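Lab manual, section 2.4: Encoding a predicted structure.

Procedure: take the sequence of the chain (419 residues), apply the prediction step described in section 2.3, and record the output as structure tokens. A sample record is shown.
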Amino acid sequence: MDVARVREDFPILGREVGGKPLVYLDSAATSQKPQQVIAAEEAFYRFSNANVHRGVYALSVEATDAYEAARARLARFIGAKDPEEIVFVRGTTEAINLVATSLGRSLLQRGDRVIATVMEHHSNVVPWHLLREYNGVRLDFVDIDEQGRLRLDELDRLLAEGPTKVVAVSHVSNVLGTVNPVREIAEKAHAHGALVVLDAAQSAPHRRLDVEKLGVDFVAFSGHKMLGPMGIGVLWGRTERLEAMPPCMGGGEMIREVHTDRVTYRDAPARFEAGTPNVGGAVALAAAADYLEAVGWEELRRHDEELLTRMLEQARERFGDRLRIYGPSDVRDREAVVAFALQGVHPHDVASLLDADGICVRAGHHCAQPLMDRLKVPALTRASTYLYNTEPEIDRMYDSLEGVVRLFAGGGSRVASAR
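Recorded output:
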């Protein structure tokens, strides 16, 4: 992959922070946007902006066509059989909340079991906790081993203990980078009559999703992590699953008829898209899908592995035991997300000092507090790469980290001790 050519498409990468060239290593939180995606959203608002599905005038028809074309494009992007299986949402969080709320109204009753994992992002934990609090469902968690891989023996044990209605799992951990064996998990869950909800927020930007091969019932992912704009994402659901679910939000566009004594709803996906949708975001997300496929999944995977290998090797060679990286040691078992602890330095101090060098990393619990509890750490620093990052940028981060080590070895003050 010609990374230098790719970088030319990202205007923000040309800026400086504090007088130093920007090194953006926080793509797991949100990716940067290529000019093609920015232009697609701008073009919609400049030339085609109108409300969809409501007008018979030409501009409204044009906007509707663009919106539904984006739905069809995202269906192809993930291998869905039918565009009607694509529900546009604000992102992964809203998608999983939609599923949990709807299932809570139609399927899940007091005492029913939901199984999640300790590595889940809060987006795939809190919605199920809400059902635990208000519906009385039972919520259990699958543990990980010391390499950060799911203990499938624990999943087997939990499934065997009694009826389970839902298994909620991430495709890729946003902290450990672990790539989970989704097909195997889905087969185990389905054998016990459970539905499977997959959080693909971290996998959709990096690998070709094929929802049929994954074998799950629902897939959620966010546009802003895969070069698209914020405020747009996708919930995919099997047709029979979506049709069996009641809406979770009411308003315009999702109804057939509304009267003072009754209401009827449209078929999916319309019943789940109440109100005016983010049409410009959907159009731009389709452009992001085009961009990623033009780069090529194999090229992107090769690039990811090169950067990840560099990240792991440099950590070992420069810092030894002083820097601990969490998650699988084999690059084939993980994505380009590296969460680490630097001995004797708080993660927020690390992030603040790297920021002074123009390097963007994230520090905190990464919306994964059950995992932090399991790892017995309050927080970690996380560096995450994408198609526009380079090996020299990895080296710059470690150069800066060496400066952090020297500062604290010399008794330097903590710059973020209050956080």
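Check your result against the sample. The chain has 14 helices and 17 strands.
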